[in-house]
## 1
Amino acid sequence: MKKKVLVTGGTGYIGSHTVVELMNAGFTPIIVDNLSNSNISVLDGIKKITGIEPVFENIDCKDYIALDRFFEKYQGIEAIINFAASKAVGESVEKPLLYYRNNLMSLVNLLELMPKHGIDNIVFSSSCTVYGQPDVLPVTEQSPIKPATSPYGSTKQMSETIIADTVYAYSNLKAILLRYFNPIGAHPSGEIGELPNGIPNNLLPYVTQTACGLREKLRIFGDDYNTEDGSCIRDFINVVDLAKAHVVAVKRMLENKSEKSVEIFNLGTGRGVSVFELVSAFEKATGVKVPFEVAPRRDGDIEKVWADTSYANEVLGWKAQETLEDTLRSAWNWEQKLMSRDGNS
Ligand code: UFG
C-alpha cells in the first residue's frame, strides 16, 4: 500500500512541487491548505503532470479541532511535511502577530496532534534566513544562528526550537529541518509554478513579470555592496530539486536512517550568484531583455549568502541537479503560460 504523507501548504509554491515528487516516488500525499496564499487550480496542474487527482482538504492548520478531525478521517499518515506558513519578509514586519499566529500556532497544533495520532515524522520548511549575514561563507549547518532581522525570520528560528524541544520530550518523534536558500523556477511542464500575490517581493517573479511587460522595470536594490559587481549574492535553487529533497528526507525517516532525532540540512546549490548575474543569465537563457534600474538598498537585505551543501550531498544523498539556465527558462515558460491563461480567462 502507498504510504500517506500529509503536506500542509501543499497548494503553495514549494508544496505543490513536492506533492508531484511524492506522487512520482509512489507516496500518497494528502494536501491540507486553507488557500490563503494559493489557488485551488493548482490541483489541476498537479493532476495534469501526474495523472493523479490529489487528495485535498481545505483546513486551516491553526484550527486544532479541524486538524484533529482530519487525522481521525485519514488514519495511517506516516509523515508530515509542514509548508503551511506565511513567508513575506516585509509583510511580517508590518503584521508581526499575523506571522507569529500563522506560523507558530499551526506548527504547535501539528506537533501536539502527532503523538495523539501515532505520527512520528515531520519535515519542516526552514530557511537560510536563520543564519542572518554569516561571518564565514559558504554556510554550513553548524554556522551560528544570528538574531532574526524580521518576524518572519523569528518564526523560522522559533519553529526550529519548538520542534527540537518537542522531539526531545517525545522519544518517538523525529524531525528533519530543511533550510532552503532561494527557491526559483517552475515545473518543466509549466503546469505549476510560483503564483505571487500582487506585486512580487522576490527577485525572479519580478524579473519574469518585467520581461513580459507586466512591470515596467526591475529595480535592483543596491549596487554598492561589498561584492564583485556590487549587487547582493544568493544561492538560487531549482524548486523541483528542492522538492525532491523532501522526498529523500521522508524516505530517510521512514527507513529509520536518521542519525539523530533532529537533523538539519542546507538545501542550496553551493553556488553564489549575484543579482546582476541572475538578470543577465535570464536574458541569455531566454533571449528576452529585462529593463532595469539600480535603486537604493532594500532594508534588511543580507549582502551575500550561499550554502555549503556537502552535508546534504553526503548524508542525505541529495544534490541539486538543474542548471541555472534551465531553471530560468522554466520560470519564463511558467510566466508565459500564466499570461496566456490570464489573457484567455
Ligand atoms: N531584489 C532586487 N529587486 C527586486 C527583488 C529582489 O534587486 O525586485 C534583490 C534583493 O534585494 C536581494 C535579492 O534580489 O538582494 C534576492 O531577493 P529575494 O526577495 O528574491 O530573496 P531574499 O534573499 O531576500 O529572501 C529569500 C526568501 C525569504 C528567505 C530569505 C532567506 O524570500 O523567505 O530568502 O535569506 F527568508
## 2
Amino acid sequence: MTRPDGSTLVLGLETSCDETSAAVLRDEHELLGHVILSQDVHGVYGGVVPELAAREHLKRIDDVVAGALAESGHSAGDLDAVAATTGPGLVGPLLVGTAWARGFALAIDRPFVPVHHMEAHLFGPAVEDPEAQPPFVALLVSGGHTLLLFAPEWGRYTLLGATRDDAAGEAFDKVAKVLGLPYPGGPELERIAREGDGKRYRFPRPLLNRGDAPGPGDYFDFSFSGLKTAVARTIEEVKARGELDEERCHLAAAFQEAVVDLLDQKVARAIRWTGCGRVLIGGGVSANGALRARLTRRVGSAGRLFVASPRLSLDNGAMVARAGLESLRRGTAQQLDVSVSPNRPFPGATPLLNRQLRPNE
Ligand code: KG4
Ligand code: ZN
C-alpha cells in the first residue's frame, strides 16, 4: 500500500453529478495532478439531465484520468489505491465512475476505496491546509444537501441539522432561474448580487424562531423552500410592473443575504452549542464570497474558518482522493463488493440526541 519512498499515491474519481474529475494525490497535501471537466451539455435544459450526465462521464472518463496521471508524472502502476464517489448522487453517473474505478483497481491490483460524496466535501479544505482537521463545526452546502455537523475526529460526526426541503444550492439555482439567469445559477446569482442593494427587499428567514431550543427540532435545521417561494412571488410582481431589469441585482442580493443570514445564524448556534470556534465549510455554495465573508466575521479572531479554494469547493476529484486516503489510513477501505447508492447515509454520523444537549455547559 505504501510506496518505496514511504509516500502513498491515491487516484480520486468524482462522477456523482455533472463534473467528471480525477486527481492524483501524494499523501495528505501534494496534489500532483487534477483534472475537472464540467459538462456543458446541460445548459440548454436549465438543469442536469441524469442520462446525459452518465453518457458524458462515460465518454470523458478515460481522458480525464489519463490527464491527471500525465500531469502527476506517474503511471497507473505507481498508484497505491483508487478512490471513487459511490454516493450520494445521480445513480447513472455514480455507476459509471464506480464501475470504471473498480475495474481499474482490479486491473492494477490495488484496493478500491468507496467514498461518500458529502464526507469528501469535508476533506476539500484539508487538501490545501494541514490545519483543516477536526475538531470543527462543519457546514456542508451543495446542490443536493445542506448539513450542519460537529466533527470531533475524522470518521465520527454528530449530525446537528439538515434541510427539511430544498438544499441551499438548489435554492440558489431555482431563484437564479426565475431571475432569468443561465444555469448553473449559483455563481451567476452571486455575480449580479455584487451590484445590488441587499436591503431593498426583505425576505423571510425560516426556522430562526426565538422560541427554538437546542436539540432535535428546528434549532439546527434549515428550510429554503418558503424563502424560495417568497422570492419567486416578489420576482413575479416586479416582472409584472416591467421593472425586472433594474431590480434583478437587488432581488439577487436580498435573496443571497437571506440565505447567508440563515446559514450564519445556524453556524452561530452550533458554535455556541459545541463550544468549538473552528468552523469548516464545504460544497459548491461554500465558494460564495458573501458566505465566506460573513462566516469569517462570525468566527472572529478567537476561532478559525476553514474553506477550500473555489476549485476544491465545487465537485472535484482531489477531495475524493483525500477522503480515500483517510479511509485507507484508518483501514476501512478495500471493500470490492460495494455498490453505488444514490442516498448513501453519511458514514460515522449519528443524529443529535436529547441527552447530548449542551455538552459544553
Ligand atoms: O458541491 P457541488 O459542486 O455539487 C453538488 O454536490 O451538488 O455544488 C453545486 C451547487 C449548485 O447548486 C451551485 O449553484 C452552487 O453549488 N454554487 C454556488 C456558487 N457556486 C456554486 N452557490 C452560490 N454561490 C456560488 N458562488
Ligand atoms: Zn458536491
